[in-house]
Amino acid sequence: MKPEQGTVDPVAEAYTTHHSRVLRYIQSRINNVWDAENLAQDVWVKVITNGRELQPLTIIPYLYTIARNLVNDYLRRLYSASMSHDDYIMEVNGDYTDDSLEAELSARELAGLEQKRVECLPPMRRTIYIMSRYDDMAVDDISARLDLSKRTVENHLRLGRKDIRTFLSNIA
């Protein structure tokens, strides 16, 4: 729908003020600049072609909902493709491996996937998760080092663990 004479199109206004923010939002989740730019453009194409009348108050949450869904679809395809390739390799080499080697490869693969997912966490959550999981630091030590309250550290750690656990359970 076209706006009436003398009014500002909410999509055009949102694009000028929020395009770079949407792009940064997507980049922070997928860690690939080129694909992030493509996904950001897809967000705007979906907004323009949605056929619904958008209000200035609802367009921003709508943008980020579309961006989140596109990022989830992108990551799902990316991890599905990598898993398909790994499954093929295991199938081809399956006759030549024993259970202990296969278990070790599976553990390494899961550890690699966990590390990739940790890179997608928000910066503070990622820092706290790494300090707890890989540096083996206690919540009190992390709290003191980062000058954060114990509850804040516990909350970031809980959300980080939940994110990683959900991700790994979805691909397993």
Report on the structure:
The chain has 172 residues and is an all-alpha fold. Helices cover 78% and strands 0% of the residues. The chain is built from seven helices and no strands. It has helices at 10-30, 33-48, 59-93, 99-119, 123-133, 139-146, 150-171. α1 packs antiparallel against α2 (33-48) and α2 packs across α3. The longest helix has 35 residues, at 59-93. It is flat, with a radius of gyration of 21 Å. The relative contact order is 0.07.
* Quantity of strands, as a count: 0
Helix content range of the residues, please?
over 70%
Structural class: mainly alpha
User: Tell me about the biggest sheet?
Assistant: none
Distance between the termini: 45 Å
| Number of continuous helical runs | 7
| Gyration radius over CA | 21 Å
Average the pLDDT over all residues and give the rounded result.
82
CA-based shape: flat
In terms of per-residue confidence, which ranges show pLDDT below 50 for 5 or more consecutive residues?
A: none
Strand content: under 5%
N-to-C SSE string, H for helix and E for strand: HHHHHHH
